[in-house]
Amino acid sequence: MSHFSKTIRQPLGPILPLHEVKRRVIVDALDKCNGNYRLAARLLGIGKSTVYRMATQLNAADTSQPIYRVFVNGKSILQL
Question: In this structure, are residues 30 and 40 in contact, taking their beta carbons and an 8 Å threshold?
Fold first, then answer.
């Protein structure tokens, strides 16, 4: 008998889909870095192009809201 069969299972609550976890990590990193992809990538331990690609792919998978908007002089020039 394994250790797991003897334990009482407690409800874990809702588990987020992986794409939502990734989305939240990317958004959080970009927010904390004021949209600086290079710095966000460094803090996450991945390449800048990986952050950009993930943001783009995640936004394509969930079009309900953009992952991040890039503003120049108060105008949105890029929406990921």
Answer: yes
Q: How many structural domains does the chain have?
A: 1
pLDDT tens digits, 16-33: 888 788 888 988 898 888
Q: What is the pTM of this model?
A: 0.59
Q: Which of these, 61, 69, 29, 68, lies nearest to 45 by C-alpha position? A: 29
| Residue 29: domain span | 15-79
Distance CA 41, CA 48 (A): 5
| 67 part of a folded domain | yes
Category of 55 on φ-ψ map: left (φ > 0), alpha (ψ -120 to 50) or beta: alpha
Any idea what the CATH number is for the domain that residue 72 is in?
Answer: 1.10.10
Count of Cβ atoms closer than 10 Å to residue 66 Cβ: 14
Percentage of the chain with pLDDT > 70?
A: 59
